[in-house]
Give the backbone structure.
Amino acid sequence: MPQPDEALIVIDVQQDFCPGGALAVAGGDEIVAGINARMADFAVRVLTQDWHPAGHSSFASSHPGKSPFDMVEMPYGPQVLWPDHCVQGTPGAAFHPALATEPADLILRKGFRSAIDSYSAFFENDRSTPTGLEGYLRERGVRRVTLVGLATDFCVNYSALDAARLGFEVTVEMALCRAIDLDGSLAAACDAMAKAGVTLA
Ligand code: VGL
Ligand code: ZN
């Protein structure tokens, strides 16, 4: 029986993060069936979608002389530069075709402002501009959130840390996540999440 105060948040299960995509996460497509199977266990189901305008400031192609995975300093702090990905309206921004989107109560888009990236489902990368998800969940009576999706060490990690900081009880189901793992970013993310009180299941 789904508990009324529990939400499943499915992070960025999109074509560009799956094998063959612009920012492919190894095994990204392997989690889709398992995520679909979990949806019935939650009263509230949210899907997030990374949704960048062309020429987004997180794209290496927007920074002359820079390459994907270089770091730059943005007004809001350090930022990894990515290959162009999840451009609004392109096939790469679409959900994986096997992801069950019908059960979703809310599809939340993020990263749509050119000048700022948004890894977290709750705040943009300045860690203070809200996406509105906190208000949505609170108004729905949610107190506990389970996170799955892509990528463990970026968007899942940032979302989990923000959810914990906001006072939600947070679980990340590691078997239903896959990581990018740049320079030890997966281990660092697991450490940070554990320290923040996130349950890594
Ligand atoms: C993501 C890098 C850039 C993610 C999104 O979904 O983890 N990573 N944009
Ligand atoms: Zn992105």
User: Anything to note?
Assistant: The chain has a mean pLDDT of 97. The chain has one domain: 6-52+86-200. Residues 14 and 94 are 6 Å apart (CA to CA). The domain at 6-52+86-200 is CATH 3.40.50.850 (Rossmann fold).
